[in-house]
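Notes from hallway chat w/ T.B., transcribed later so I don't forget. T.B. wanted the structure written out for a chain they're using in a teaching module, and asked if we could keep both sequence and structure tokens in one place. Agreed to drop them here.
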Amino acid sequence: MDITVDKSIRTPLYWQIADQIKAMIIEGQMADGSILPSERSLAQMLGVHRNTIIKAYSHLRDQELIDSLQGVGYRVTYKSESFYEPDVRRKVNWSTIIKDEYQDMEKTFDDIFLRFTEENNISFSTGMPPAIYDEEDLATDLAAILREEGRKPFFLSPYQGDLTLRHKIIAYLRTKGIKAGLNQVQILSETNQALDFIVTSLLNPGDRVITEEPVSPDVYRVIELAGGRPVTVPVDENGMICDNLEALIETHRPKFIYVNSSYHDPTGNILSVERRRKLLELSNRYRLPIIEEDAASELSFEEKVFAHDQINGSQ
């Protein structure tokens, strides 16, 4: 959060802080539902007293731009609260679109890893050994592994990724208005691996996927290798053109929409806030998932990037 305070001018510090946060909210830099820093952490960040932050947040609450929730903290709430009601918002029903063989993957993974923690087995897959192994036995087993042909790298890590890293990612996502639990965060090596993971879980041969045109060859390739059929939609300086997108959805019944929202590859364009809202509206109406590649949203050097304006609610 980029906030500056000038102690040399007569404008109260809390007013300076509140005005800058208000500008971020109105301009769309902070999505509805975004979590603000705690009073103490923002005070330390800006070098002011905690009471100054309390007054700034109170000022914003009076204007109905933010509110506070027990156990959550302060969040942006400048839009209709009804948008967040479960009976109003039609969420994607993932259980109906994930292929049958992948429905119980979490349990399958857990069963596999637990099996390898039984007595007389040494497992590097769980990331947490069930007991202290005998040094001599461990050395003997490691030496045997290294002598085998076709050596493979081994390292200790839970299959969902490092626990500390996942906690930090969850904390970061909360600043974007995204509430996720540990089991909803999966660490992968790169974007292509993540896309392959999604495509493998969702697509059957012949399924359609709406993508931007032009689109990264890697994205096009992974969809086609899975037997999917890309349905391309042109882009302009404001990203994917959404004027006739609903007609395409009605005609092709796609499995999901893929969008590279910030610094689109290869055009470098940024999806506008208006079109992000249109995509979310269509996602809610048709219960259609949006797979968003948004790794570059934090790399804005010239213009403000509205990378998380509500589109994340469909993911």
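Follow-up for T.B.: Strands lie at 66-69, 73-76, 208-213, 229-236, 239-240, 256-260, 290-293. Might be a good example for the class.
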